[in-house]
Amino acid sequence: MKTALITGGLGFVGSYISKDLINNKVVDKVICLDNFASYVDVTNPRYQDYRKFRFDGIMNKIIVERGDAKFYGVVNSIINKYKPNYIFHLASLPLAKIDNLNVEEAFESSVTATSNIIEICSSIKNYKLERFIYTSSSMVYGNFQKNVVNEETNCNPIEIYGTAKLSGEKATQGLSNYYGIPWTIIRPSAVFGPTDMNNRVSQLIVDKALRNEEIDIYGEEEKLDFTYVKNLSLGFVKTATHKNGINQIFNITNGKAHTILEFIKEVEKYIPEIKYKIHERDKSRPVRGTLSNKKIKDHINFKPPYTFEQGIKEYVEYKLNEKKL
């Protein structure tokens, strides 16, 4: 029986990867290691916990294990118990801007947990991990010096999250190469889609539009390479299972940046008369743009199945249907 372990498996992206692994018959079971944490205020009356809905249709193929990937003993026990064919390491802070963000918390998941997983895999006799997949971020690039960056662009993060993610990349490459473990690094950007509950900018836009509340835009020309979650999850699976993905770094994005105002205008096709206010941009955030996805097209022959417009349409329709319930 083939299995995959996903750290942070009950999370937004991890749940979609689980579905793609099962539906594409890559594995028979997915082990979701999760610490059941939340990164937003769960006492907020508007908070919706989507975790119980994320595995509809595949729950009999999912094994949920409680535990934090930063603890060596937890990871050691899980990997020895299941000996997964693939490990997708997603357990970390879910986004760059959360309350009380601190260096220790960011590095525990990106560096400590990554190092533990790789070392444990190397220490188990007669066990060969097919691929270790590390989840990085577009924030590793820091301020974009050009409109488009690719995987060869110099990384120069300017804040905690991107610095921790880049450190995790270095740990992945150095330790995996040392122990002879095949690896893949994924750099997503501005992920959005159904069941997101971590207050990413895309979720805030749609939720406030549905409540007819004013949306704050920090920077009229602020751009993000918005990436629909179903494109990202399928890209994860394709790179993890393709020989050309071994020991490679990939951007998995829409491949074209849009302003936040353009995102709002697209949402407005389905939720009319959206109110918004433009403020001065947040200078603590890196200036961003398009992440080229040419490499994943050339190496893996992967093209995101959803366009920017199709992703927003499906996401907004999901939220509108939810409102009717």
Task: Please explain how this structure is put together.
This protein is α/β, with parallel strands linked by helices and 325 residues long. The chain has one domain (3-191, 229-253, 291-305): NAD(P)-binding Rossmann-like Domain (Rossmann fold, 3-Layer(aba) Sandwich). Helix content is 37%, strand content 17%. It is built from nine helices and 15 strands. The longest helix has 21 residues, at 103-123.
Give a concise summary.
Helix content is 37%, strand content 17%. The protein has helices at 12-23, 72-82, 103-123, 160-179, 201-210, 229-241, 260-267, 294-300, 308-324, and strands at 3-7, 29-34, 62-66, 86-89, 131-135, 148-149, 183-187, 191-192, 215-218, 223-224, 227-228, 248-251, 258-259, 276-279, 290-291.
